[in-house]
Amino acid sequence: MTDVMIxxxxxxxxxxxxxxxxxxxxxxxxxxxxxDRLDRARDALGREADLSGQQAKVRSVPADIGREADVAELFxxxxxxxxxxxxxxxxxxxxxxxxDIAVDTARAVLDTKLLGAWLVGRYAAGVVTGSITFTSGxxxxxxxxxxxxxxxxNGGLASLASGLxxxxxxxxxxxxxxxxxxxxxxxxxxxxxxxxxxxxxxxxPARRIGSADDIARALLSVMRNPFTTAAVLHVDGGHRLx
Length: 242
Ligand SMILES: NC(=O)c1ccc[n+]([C@@H]2O[C@H](COP(=O)([O-])OP(=O)(O)OC[C@H]3O[C@@H](n4cnc5c(N)ncnc54)[C@H](OP(=O)(O)O)[C@@H]3O)[C@@H](O)[C@H]2O)c1
Description:
The protein is α/β, with parallel strands linked by helices. Helix content is 43%, strand content 17%. The chain has 7 helices and 7 strands, in the order βαβαβαβαβαβααβ. Strand 2 (28-32), helix 2 (35-52) and strand 3 form a beta-alpha-beta unit. The longest helix has 22 residues, at 103-124.
């Protein structure tokens, strides 16, 4: 039995959520492709639990959300899961005008972000007891001409969550949509992150870029509110307004 399975929990928002949960003594299962990254995350969380005297159990399971066999095995091997949170995404090579994006790259985005989320709904049915929360993103609501396929995948998650909220009821299914958040996903995009963040922070009504912890707190609140289902919670510093 695990309290919360976090697919993408080895870094960024998923890892920040795991830290909040471990601080409360929850049992957490971290899922991602890189066993090394997961082991480092699990060890760091284990040390934090020891320091705070919590009994939290942290497990890690390597799996690729885009591979049906991995997702099937993930849930077949889980006796009971209260909540599932999906933050997994690989943005490598997906930004640019559509004519410059390889079709295989576009397929990989859809396979992981959208079809992977559907696979989670398909195989978590009957195993998950509380909620499933997906992570979409601001580009679904403010596409900029250089993020079309990621915007489409993110936008599709709202409809997917609504469909699954009906199918899997009373399990609740929701989406959190972050704005720009300072996490490792930005590291491989080959841009001047600091300059881009400073310019965006000036534009946003919140006057700052988000932190992984901002999103982790939103994921936690959506996951725990027993009357929230088929919802999209925007946590974007007001980005949809500018
Ligand atoms: N950061 C932002 O500004 C921002 C803005 C809007 C939306 N988002 C969305 O927020 C979510 C979380 O991103 P983040 O910023 O926290 O990025 P992150 O630190 O890169 O976290 C993503 C995690 O997903 C895992 N992952 C990637 N592909 C996977 C796959 N196929 N199967 C299983 N795990 C996979 C990665 O680990 P492995 O590589 O080891 O698999 C990584 O630990 C993503 O869905 C992203 O699109 C981010």
